[in-house]
Amino acid sequence: MTKAPKTKPKGRPSAMLNNPAFARNVGRGRPKGATNKLTKTVKDMVIGALNVAGGQKYLAEQATRNPVAFMTLLGKVLPTQLTGPGDGPVQIASIRLLGPDDPDPNA
Fold it and tell me: What percentage of the chain carries pLDDT values higher than 70?
């Protein structure tokens, strides 16, 4: 006769659930928009390295030398959704510059 293996109960130990301080914070997690400390540290390190490498001039050079990597970086830092004023739609405006030999569009 073989014994069945002992299994640990799933979920949190009852001692934790009976602790009022623990029960009060269950499911709260990090506040919305709060930055992970490790993520912030890594971002600061990357920005520091970029400054040492030449900053904007270095990035412009990489756009030419390594366009695939540069466009990947650009895709990571650009916002994924654009909105206009007051969270409305994006408004696109264009300005047409006329030279002295161009016809007047209002005529």
Answer: 74
Q: Any idea what DSSP says for residue 2?
A: P
Is 46 within the bounds of a domain? yes
Which tokens in the block code for residue 7? 């299994």
Q: Please tell me the distance from the alpha carbon of residue 99 to that of residue 26, in angstroms, as a whole number.
A: 67
- What's the CA gap between 59 and 64, in Å, rounded? 9
Give the number of domains in the chain: 1
Give the residue numbers spanning the domain of 39. 35-78
Q: CB neighbours of 49 closer than 8 A, spacing ≥ 6? A: none
Cα–Cα distance, 13 to 5 (Å, whole number): 19
Identify the CA nearest to 58 among candidates 69, 76, 41.
69
What are the φ/ψ torsions at residue 78 (nearest 5 degrees)?
-75, 150
Does residue 60 lie in a domain region? yes
Which pLDDT tens digit goes with each residue over 56-96? 999 999 999 999 999 998 888 877 777 888 888 888 888 77
